[in-house]
């Protein structure tokens, strides 16, 4: 049952990155759109994510619950030594959700709309950035449980080039996801061409920032590349993700809609498998030790109860969630004017 719980943990992380990441990416795309494009991009992204944006955080909640119940040692370490980036992550989620509601449902349309828009786009950047920082810190070996001062214990672990590079990489991934997904949401060729251009640019940035993560890791003495090439599963996942890139570019150039979405989801899945496999069995790397999910698991009875709850709950929750996504995807999007370059 332990491996059932671990599978749910990793699947929750993957789904949050795929669905929640595309959600955040919509705000990132809006942030980096020109002034003349912001209003049109805003309308399209709202209609695409509006009905289901809040459901995406279900995956994060499941992840937190699994760690809290099933792996209390890991949950404690993260919540103590990474409480600052965790708090900033949660602030970003709350600020983004609040701004999203106010800018569309505020009864009075005044200058505060500009404030809501700014909060939305910058919190859309901030949230995946700190999510990536948390992931980068967890595998960097920078956490020191024996630290005695505030800076060493609570700032130094995540204020490093490697965690920051992973944060930037996560932001770019979210933007890439959103650009590819939004191609299918547009209802005219000019809009689709615009998002294809954005997808190409974000994909190039994904490759650059992904390479930067490895370079910074080597520079800081984090053997990420060495561990990767020594693990056949991680290496195979990285090769598959790399080989799928030219196929994605070709399909985008041929103006396909469905298969680029599938391939970008596949690439993100392979990237996560690469990271997990290269670190296995470790989940958190400390300065002088490591912690694995197997060693940090709660008692057998707790793991069994948690695993059963996840299995039974998924039978009810997952069909309802995917039907929600399916039903709203069937609604037409009333974008009358194409986006302009």
UniProtKB/TrEMBL annotation:
Pfam entry (one): Cyt_bd_oxida_II
Main location: membrane
UniProt superkingdom: Bacteria
Membrane topology field: Multi-pass membrane protein
Alphabetic keyword roster: Cell membrane, Membrane, Transmembrane, Transmembrane helix
MF-aspect GO terms: electron transfer activity; oxidoreductase activity, acting on diphenols and related substances as donors, oxygen as acceptor
GO biological process: aerobic electron transport chain
Subcellular location: Cell membrane
Assigned protein family: Belongs to the cytochrome ubiquinol oxidase subunit 2 family.
Protein name per the record: Cytochrome bd-type quinol oxidase, subunit 2
């Amino acid at each position: 049952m332990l491996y059932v719980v671990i599978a749910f943990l990793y699947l929750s992380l993957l789904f949050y990155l795929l669905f929640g990441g595309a959600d955040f990416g919509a705000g990132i795309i809006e942030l980096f759109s020109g002034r003349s494009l912001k209003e049109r991009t805003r309308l399209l992204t709202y209609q695409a994510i509006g009905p289901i944006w809040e459901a995406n955080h279900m995956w994060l909640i499941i992840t937190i619950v699994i760690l809290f119940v099933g792996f209390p040692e890991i949950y404690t370490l993260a919540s103590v030594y990474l409480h600052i980036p965790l708090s900033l992550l949660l602030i970003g989620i709350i600020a983004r959700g609040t701004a999203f509601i106010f800018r569309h449902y505020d009864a009075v349309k005044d200058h505060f709309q500009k404030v809501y828009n700014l909060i939305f786009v910058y919190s859309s950047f901030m949230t995946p950035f700190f999510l990536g920082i948390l992931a980068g810190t967890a595998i960097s070996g920078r956490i020191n449980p024996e630290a005695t001062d505030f800076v060493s214990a609570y700032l130094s672990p995540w204020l490093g080039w490697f965690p920051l590079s992973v944060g930037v990489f996560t932001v770019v991934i979210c933007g890439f996801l959103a650009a590819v997904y939004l191609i299918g949401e547009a209802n005219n060729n000019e809009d689709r061409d615009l998002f294809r251009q954005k997808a190409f640019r974000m994909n190039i940035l994904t490759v650059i920032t992904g390479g930067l993560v490895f370079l910074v890791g080597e520079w800081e003495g984090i053997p990420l590349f060495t561990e990767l090439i020594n693990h056949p599963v991680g290496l195979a996942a990285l090769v598959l993700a790399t080989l799928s890139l030219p196929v994605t570019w070709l399909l985008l150039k041929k103006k396909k809609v469905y298969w680029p979405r599938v391939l970008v989801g596949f690439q993100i899945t392979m990237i996560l498998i690469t990271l997990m496999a290269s670190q296995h069995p470790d989940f958190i790397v400390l300065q002088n030790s490591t912690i694995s999910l197997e060693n940090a698991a709660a008692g057998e009875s707790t793991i069994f109860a948690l695993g059963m709850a996840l299995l039974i709950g998924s039978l009810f929750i997952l069909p309802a969630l995917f039907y929600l996504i399916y039903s709203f995807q069937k609604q037409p999007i009333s974008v009358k004017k194409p986006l302009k370059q």
